[in-house]
């Protein structure tokens, strides 16, 4: 075992932030970057007129709409730890990108709007986190506004998500009457608006504020003491093993917008969250993060992050060993060698050339088309292949053609590059070769159309063929005569045949007619 490498790996903290749209995920990301000294001021997405956009929302359409539709990656150093944050799209139409991103992290931070509680998208994303068994840290956001009772919010974690919530701190008031946080873990009060010259923290003695402190007489504080007693009697006890097993979630309250409670959260998170652990390779082998041989997998591909350069970046999660510039690796899918000359990491909206990276780090490789989502790469002689990433069966479909037939070249280039990012799926009509796009949600089509026009100078015509049930068929079972107006026969970008059924009834009719034919779907 390489001790120097093992020590570096132990300092890594790699996590994704998940939430429902508008719960404040991008804002908390900004504040974490601010605390990491990466940016000088946090741009809130709401401030359209000032031109202050959130650093992690780099794409033009995200700035216009104020939503995240791609997963961004940001890195910074904090208290001797190397933090890799993956900010995921909250919008449900982009959940596929988020699911893949969750395969590349060691922990998740779940941001919940304290006025709304757990919303549908959070439930969906939490399910994936649960399947992977990764630790979850909960941040109850927007305490600067009036919200629901804290006891209800913690109870809802158990009722709706089935995970035990353990409070690390507790609000003293909320919204207009907010006074601060009772910090259970650090035995102190964190004041919301300390007076000039007053310390932000009041140490607790035997769980209480000293009698001579004005806070001792505050009715809100007295109410909080009653709730703390209740928590001590009936609440869950903090259990680090249960947290690391994904069975218990530490709960922190705060306000990302006013940067209150965020630093306390970050300090605890860095302390409690796990360093990178083993990955499964080749079906059933365990690969240790401090294994000497470099390996990793591509979980995301993003074209045109820099509009000036028309580039394409493959994001790789390093799983073992050490990355250095000029490293020669093998691409497991093709068996071909690739030299990793040009790699970057991301500090907010700027890029820095990577000279070295270890397990847990995320590196962006400039890609000329070698990589696909899910690709495994490894440096040694031993072949290492990571499990396949989840793929989703699209539900909405559109016919696509270029508006200007003279611009076929830019149309094809745009189609190929955007499809490789995995947000939309590309199909061709089996008979006519016409392009058909499939997606999980309508917004993906809008983003696709916008980016084709703005990044590839190609305006496209899109005609909806509505909701369809996509089912793959084995090539040896296929007779093209099986297709009809109710089940369109197409092939995916790898040439595999599938039917797009008009509805579930059409699919059942097909089963009845061809009982020996097996149809399959993705996730």
TrEMBL record:
SUPFAM superfamilies: EF-G C-terminal domain-like (SSF54980), P-loop containing nucleoside triphosphate hydrolases (SSF52540), Translation proteins (SSF50447). The keyword Protein biosynthesis applies. It is found in: Cytoplasm. Its main location: cytoplasm. Transmembrane segments: none annotated. Keywords: Cytoplasm, GTP-binding, Nucleotide-binding, Protein biosynthesis. Belongs to the TRAFAC class translation factor GTPase superfamily. Classic translation factor GTPase family. PrfC subfamily. The keyword Protein biosynthesis applies. This is Peptide chain release factor 3. One of its GO terms (cellular component) is cytosol. The gene is prfC.
